[in-house]
Structures are given as structure tokens and as C-alpha cells.
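S.,

Sequence below, as promised.
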Amino acid sequence: MFVGCARGVDAAFRAAFPGASVLAASSFGSGRGSFAARSAACVRAVAGAGSGPAGSFLGGLWVSFPSGPCPAGLAPSASSSRAFCGSGSGTWASAAFAAGSGLPVLVFGFAPPAGWGFVSLGGGWWFSGWPASQLSLGF
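The prediction came back faster than expected:
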């Protein structure tokens, strides 16, 4: 499990999963660009986590809890510079980069834009990646 250094959901996950690998923005320089670089590295780490023998069945899964709707004009992209284009939402930019990079993505709370290809799982959950019929949240 990989998690960022932010407050809020990141902090809750760090507390719940003390063994998680924490990626700190300060490791990527200073200023706003360090947060984008940290988030892009986190997406790449999750993508790489599914490439080994233990991860070959399921692979990585990107999970996002955005605090607001997706900024207009942001779209999935395998290019980190396109995803992290200064839209104002690192959470949505991370989801865009993950989806564009081929990672399955799970979003809670706000619906991704229609063109992103997500399906509703109900209860505020949205998914893109493996066939949704194979995903069970256990609720």
C-alpha cells in the first residue's frame, strides 16, 4: 500500500495502515510541483506493485476520495504533465493519471465526468478498470 503525506484521508490511511509506504512531497523538492511529483510517483508505485508474482492476479488499484467535483477539462492521461496540469485538484489529477495509465480506479463521493468511462457501483462509489461485475466491496 502506498499513501501520500497529506492531511485528511491520507492521514487516516497512514493511521489505519502503519506499514504503508508513505511518499512525502518534500522528497520531490519544494512548492506546488513537489505535490504533483509526489502524486505521480505514488500512482507509478501502485502501478508497479501489481507487476510482481504476488500481484499478477489483481495488480494495483488506485483509490481516490475527492473533496469536490472534478475540474472542467481534466481527462485521463498516461502523461503526468497532462494530468497534473494545474487544475487545482491533486486528487482528481491523480485519478486521471492512474486511469490514463491503465490502473483500475475506484472513486468515492463525487462522480467522475461521463467521458472517463466509470460505472456507478452505488453508495457513492465509482469504478473504472476490471469488469465491474468482478468487483465486490463487501457492503
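Strands lie at 2-4, 21-23, 62-64, 105-108, 119-122, 125-128.

Coffee later?
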